[in-house]
């Protein structure tokens, strides 16, 4: 099922960078209104700020977002499924979890 508010990682770009449009179906890098979906294993380099509505693992065994910069990067998204975040650079990795929906208590 394809959704206009969703973009899909293909990993077919020239680099493993999140911002490489060639890695996304139809060349659409996710923005703050879109969900980024991964069906296959991927090791993605975060080379700039990442803002997406959600980042979702839909069946891949390993999704790793790797921050390797000397610059500061902000990861701003709700996370769904098993996704690892690794910091390897000298800069600061800021993670904004404010968009993660709160769980409702059972009635």
Care to describe what's here?
It contains no helices and 8 strands. The strands form 2 sheets. A 5-stranded parallel sheet has the order 1-2-4-6-8, with no helix packed on it. The protein has a 3-stranded parallel sheet with strand order 3-5-7, with no helix packed on it. Residues 98-107 have low confidence and may be disordered. Helices cover 0% and strands 38% of the residues. With 107 residues, it is mostly beta strands. It has strands at 6-8, 35-38, 42-46, 50-57, 63-67, 73-80, 84-87, 93-96.
Key descriptive features of the protein:
single chain; 107 residues; mainly beta; five-stranded parallel sheet; three-stranded parallel sheet; 8 strands; 38% strand; disordered C terminus
Helical residue percent band: under 10%
Question: How would you sum up the major sheet?
Answer: 5 strands, parallel
The shape, in one word, is globular
- What structural class should be given to the helix and strand makeup? mainly beta
String of helices and strands: EEEEEEEE
What's the end-to-end separation, in Å?
32 Å
Total of DSSP H or I helical runs spanning 4+ residues: 0
Proportion of β residues?
35-45%
Number of strands: 8
Chain-averaged pLDDT: 80
Low-confidence blocks of residues: 98-107
Integer-rounded radius of gyration: 14 Å
Strand order of the largest sheet: 1-2-4-6-8
């Amino acid at each position: 099922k394809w959704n206009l508010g969703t973009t899909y990682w293909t990993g077919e770009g020239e680099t493993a960078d999140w911002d490489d449009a060639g890695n996304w179906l139809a060349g659409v890098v996710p923005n703050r209104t879109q969900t980024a979906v991964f069906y296959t294993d991927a090791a993605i380099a975060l080379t700039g700020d990442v803002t997406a509505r959600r980042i979702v693992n839909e069946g891949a065994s390993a999704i790793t977002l790797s921050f390797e910069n000397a610059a500061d990067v902000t990861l701003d998204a709700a996370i769904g499924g098993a996704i690892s975040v690794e910091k390897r650079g000298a800069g600061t990795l800021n993670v904004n979890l404010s968009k993660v929906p709160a769980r409702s208590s059972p009635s």
